[in-house]
Specification:
9 strands, mainly beta, nine-stranded parallel sheet
Length: 167
């Protein structure tokens, strides 16, 4: 179960102590019946059939939503991708927030070069889920699944919390 706690980083127990304690207490004192829904698997999504591609070149403030074959960002800032599904995401020299979105690629799901990306809640799967060079990624509540590697990084910083990694 994912709860976004506003104004909290990777240590919500310090950043938002009262809110975190309230959430934990309500979960720990709940009955088995009331928490069953939290552990149910997500319903299967229909197969991605979109042929739509998204592009951003030297733009700011653009928002992408829905299904895409691929999205490419180059020299973009303040970009938001939310409630989206795609086969591939390429990010070059850009700043991006990826929220409640899934990437199901073949070779590489997310390719990030010289970029800053915040990823909250979703799934990224491919042979290499994330390939990154000279980038910073802040990842929370994300399932990374790579058949060869969940993450392949060079000169990059990844901050990962409350996430699952399989490879």
């Amino acid at each position: 179960h994912l709860v976004i706690i506003e104004d909290a980083g990777h240590e919500p127990m310090q950043d938002q102590t009262e809110r975190t304690n309230t959430l934990l207490n309500s979960f720990l004192t709940a009955t088995d019946d009331s928490v069953t829904e939290f552990f149910a698997p997500r319903p299967a999504q229909p197969t991605l059939t979109s042929t739509r591609t998204g592009k951003c070149s030297a733009e700011s403030g653009k928002i992408f939503e829905g299904d895409y074959r691929s999205i490419e960002l180059k020299d973009c800032s303040n970009i938001t991708i939310r409630n989206a599904r795609m086969d591939r995401l390429n990010v070059l020299n850009s700043r991006l927030n990826l929220i409640d979105s899934d990437i199901s690629g073949k070779e590489v799901g997310l390719q990030a070069d010289n970029s800053e990306i915040t990823i909250t809640n979703g799934k990224i799967s491919a042979a290499i889920a994330i390939a990154t060079t000279d980038s910073r990624l802040d990842i929370a509540g994300v399932h990374l699944k790579g058949t060869r590697a969940a993450v392949k990084g060079v000169n990059s910083k990844l901050v990962i919390s409350v996430s699952q990694m399989d490879s």
